Amino acid sequence: MRRKRWRIALVVVLSLVVLVAGAVVGDYVYLNHLVHRVVVKNEAVRYNSTENILLVGSTSRCALKVQNAAYGLCSQGVTGVNSDVVMIVHLNFTTKAVSLLSIPRDVFVPNARTTGANKIDAALYQGPSQLVSAIQNDFGIPINHFIELNFDTFASVVDALGGINMYFPMEVFDAYSGLNITHTGCIHLDGYHALQVVRARHLQIRYPGDGPNPHTWPQEGLSDLARIRRDHEFLRVVAAALKAKGLGNPITDQRLATAVAPNLQVDSAFSLSDMLNLASTFSGVSISAVPQMTIPVVLVQTGSYLYKGYYYGDIEFPIGPDVSSVIDQFLQISPATNTLNGAALPAPSAVSVSVYGGTGVTTQGPQIATALRTQGFHVTAVGSVPPTGTREETMVYHSSTSAASIGAAEAVLHRLAGPAVMALGPTMGGATVTVVAGSDLSVLPVAHAGAPAATTHGTTTTRAPSSSTTSTTVTTTTTAGAYDPTLVKQDPSLSAPTSVSMALQPWDPRSCGPNGTPGP
After folding, report:
1. Is the distance from CB of 358 to CB of 396 less than 8 angstroms?
2. Straight-line distance from the first to the last Cα atom of the chain, in angstroms, rounded to the nearest whole number
3. Which of 84, 175, 212, 371 has the fewest CB within 10 Å, making it most exposed?
4. Tens-digit pLDDT profile for the chain (520 aa)?
5. Phi, psi at 437, each rounded to 5°
6. CA 67, CA 74: separation in Å to the nearest integer?
7. Strand, helix or coil at 66?
8. Is the distance from CB of 119 to CB of 154 less than 8 angstroms?
């Protein structure tokens, strides 16, 4: 069959296992047919000439063409399907702006599966449609396309570039990913060893005075959150490697295309013409200009999280109103905008709300209801429900997947401070929205209700890496809509909120500078 030579630049593949803005995944149309396609339901409608693409790094060993004992073997029961990496790329076709948002894999959300709550990474087990639904229903982030990659994809891309160089300021080790860096400096990594770097979330660090046995070195805290900051740095390193190789070089392009296309799975609506349009629109975007954000969370520090009789291991709660503010910033919309369709959020007087205390404290429901009435919401019912977990995450229920229903829930969520998330589920008391109040929930005062958080969090480690405890520097303003941190009680079982933009730690690998020095 005759092949027409076109260059397919996929800016959408802005994740740790693929290319970055303007990167090439193929230079022949026929390679488009090597990409695997899957039907993804419930994808959102584009608005304001923008598009959001969900990028997933799958842990499925059974999907690998060649089994590798280092990853775990499907034949030996390593059959789990999770999304270790969940990133969303926001593309604005008018301004040609690109932004990147990571969702930590251990975030506990109510609609992770059709059966109910779980970590967000568990949604992929029921297929990409379920993961898309969870993100839209629980965070209100519209998803227009889906891309899934696996270990093979990632390693093949790095090898196609001839490897990459990363600077290691300290010796580090991860028994789970296989990472074992025994000397500092600029080190050349092939695909196999680069994969060890970005998979590492049980990192142990050798400090001066530590012995040679890496199993005795102190372990870094924050797990997947620490991995996210290294993944973001890795994107910058890959971008530099792509630039050095010269995108548009037929040899490099062909090598990349052959490496990526056969291991790429995308939604069936993501056509070749869509890819070409992305190429022509975003080919000039530089990764250094792309904001890279992470959903802010608080870590539940009570051991394995117990919820409705089941243990879920280490989990995190999204923290409001910071999350609402970050999502609005990521989508480049105002706080008064419905994230799903770009329309205005309803006024509080147009939203009916029922409120139920969920912590076992009898006064909680009435107190939250009174505060929401002061905000102008129509409260239809007040009550309580039995606690369900070790710590209670506030659920803001909406009854349908429509933009109007989710918008009503967003209008309420914007007024809440504390660990809170939206949820698709039955509402009670004849209301449009039901709030089941969890631990440490507060309602923003009326003077502050115009917009979500105007807070910045700078996170620094305050003890050995084996601890996940952080200290938070909070800067507030007195303008309407500013987030008053005194509204949220400091619960010792919850960490301080994590940073939206996480700085590299002294032990983190980074880019290489000239003559084997650390890069910027």
Report:
1. no
2. 48
3. 212
4. 333 222 222 333 433 333 333 334 444 455 666 778 899 998 898 999 999 999 887 654 444 455 455 555 444 443 345 677 898 999 999 998 888 899 999 999 999 999 999 999 999 989 999 999 999 999 999 999 998 887 677 777 788 888 999 999 999 999 988 999 999 999 999 988 998 898 888 999 999 999 999 999 999 987 788 888 998 888 788 877 877 776 556 666 666 767 777 777 889 998 877 776 776 787 777 767 788 899 999 999 888 999 999 999 999 999 999 999 999 999 999 999 999 999 999 999 999 999 999 999 999 999 999 999 999 999 999 999 999 888 889 999 999 999 999 999 999 999 999 999 999 999 999 999 999 999 899 999 875 444 443 333 332 222 233 333 332 222 222 233 333 444 444 567 888 899 898 889 999 999 999 988 998 8
5. -75, 130
6. 8
7. coil
8. no
Three-class SS string for 306-331? EECCEECCCCEEEEECHHHHHHHHHH
φ/ψ (deg, to 5) at 180:
-150, 90
The rounded distance, in Å, linking the Cα atoms of 38 and 57 is 16
Q: For the whole model, what pTM was predicted? A: 0.83
Identity of residue 465: P
Instruction: Quote the tokens at residue 133.
Output: 């639904």
Neighbours of 163 (CB within 10 A): 15
Q: Which amino acid is at 397?
A: Y
**Residue 399 is encoded by which pair of tokens?**
């009854």
Q: Which amino acid is at 225?
A: L
Tokens of 279: 């190429």
Report phi then psi at 271, rounded to 5: -85, 170
Q: Where are the beta strands (DSSP E) in 237-331?
A: 265-267, 292-294, 297-299, 306-307, 310-311, 316-320
Cβ–Cβ < 8 Å for 321, 328: no
The amino acid at 452: P
* Among candidate residues 230, 270, 262, 229, the one with its CA nearest the CA of residue 128: 270
| Matching residue, tokens 């969090």 | 457
- 431: tokens are 């209301």
Q: What is the CA radius of gyration of the chain?
A: 23
Residue 102 has, within 13 A of its CA and on its CB side, a CA count of 33
Calculate the CA dihedral of residues 355, 357, 358, 364 and round it to 10 degrees.
140
- What is the rounded (10 degree) CA torsion for 346, 443, 330, 501? 180
**Cβ distance 502 to 470 under 8 Å?**
no
Q: Which of 461, 472, 466 is nearest to 506 (CA)?
A: 461
For the chain, domains (ranges, CATH) are 1-293+502-520 (3.40.630.190), 306-487 (no CATH)
What tokens does 47 get?
């608005």
Tokens of 145: 């396309």
How many of the other CB atoms lie within 10 Å of CB of 490? 10
| Short-list 22, 66, 36, CA closest to 256 | 22
